[in-house]
Structure prediction request, 186 residues.
Amino acid sequence: MRFGTTPILFLLLFLNIVSPISSANSNTTFKELKNLQALAEKSKQLNLPIMLMFGAEWCEYCELLNEQVLTPIAISGLYEEKVVLMRHVGVDEAKPIADWYGKPLIKEKWAYELDADLTPTVVFFDGFAREVAPRIVGISEISLYASLIHQNLNIAYKNMGLTKQIPATPELLEQKSKIQTQKISE
Prediction:
């Protein structure tokens, strides 16, 4: 009888250990857009551009972009609410979200109206619904994609009237962040 309870105890212990880890990681991945109005308000408060990646579940290139560029950027902790507000816009999701003004918005219809229905398409906005940098449509070279995002973020800052600039690559941004952290701790 005692032997039969061991696997159950092991399973409960395992779930207790794994559950907090998975829930902790859920906030560090590339987030789905749930409320555009709230995101716009946050953009205005933080004076940061919004980067939206229009994608679909069935899109292989979207998956590649998420895995190799956007999720690593999100996980790094160097971008969200520091240099940009990033969200994924699932054009194949039927549930409406709040638009810029709080009205119901169907993502697929919005993507079509924006001419962002070819996936993946990355669009940069300010908090007032204005496009502030060139779009990135498709993937020409995945290894250069993050640098292209950095280039377009710097264009967005300029078009928003900001003096903020970020380094040309994620590696340089990470290096700059480490140097700033060292200076603070000294």
About this structure: The chain has one domain: 30-185. Residues 30-185 form a domain with the Glutaredoxin fold (CATH 3.40.30.10). The helical segments are 2-26, 36-46, 60-76, 107-114, 145-159, 170-185. The longest helix spans residues 2-26.
